[in-house]
Amino acid sequence: MFSLICGDVFSKDHQSIHVRVGGLGFEVWAPLDVIAEVKIGEEVKLFTHTHLRENLIQLFGFESEDNKKLFLTLIGVNGIGPKVGLNILSAAPKDQIIQWIRSADIDGLCTLPKIGKKTAQQIILSLKDQDWIQATQIEGSNNTTQYEQLTKALVNLGYRREDVEQVISKLGMDLNFEDSFRQSLSLLSGV
Questions:
Q1: Are residues 112 and 91 in the same domain?
Q2: How far apart are CA 108 and CA 92, in angstroms?
């Protein structure tokens, strides 16, 4: 129905952005990183998916077409609805999610909210061999990228950026993302 929305942000909350377009106000559900980045009064451009149910119309917005595509692919998996799909994109960077799918990393996917072992297996089974998943270029796995991904994932879970950066600086960056994520969560629970 709507594939793109451009307008001024007039309010936001913990799960959505309210965008004014031509005298109309739209509530757009978005990943936490998108909500954190937008400022009230600024113009925003979001790639949207319109989700229709019997008694509800919802707009979901993303900063890139790739994130929208990943969202649509995820909600196509049996057992994953739009809210869980949005929670997944809020909890980890797109590249990390795709990497977990490509490598059939069930433990990595299980770190995502509302994703248990069976759902992780279903995601891998449904998506691993999709051409666009295999063709997507993933940013390099150098320490800077992992640091940024880890920071983003933890801030999106609601931790303060200052606390996250302090905890990450204590970690050895020779750890993989999943181990760094788990250790960070453990340390942050004591902050």
A1: yes
A2: 10
At residue 161, the 3 state secondary structure works out as: helix
User: In degrees rounded to 5, what are phi and psi of residue 46?
Assistant: -130, 135
The pLDDT averaged over each successive group of 10 residues in the chain (191 residues) is: 91 94 95 92 96 92 94 93 93 89 90 91 89 69 61 80 80 70 82 53
The backbone torsions φ and ψ at residue 32, rounded to the nearest 5 degrees and listed phi first, read -60, -35
20 φ, ψ to 5°? -95, 125
Q: Are residues 19 and 8 in the same domain?
A: yes
The range of the structural domain enclosing residue 175 comes to 143-188
Q: CB burial class (10 A; 0-12, 13-18, 19+) of residue 149? A: buried
CATH number, domain at 40? 2.40.50.140
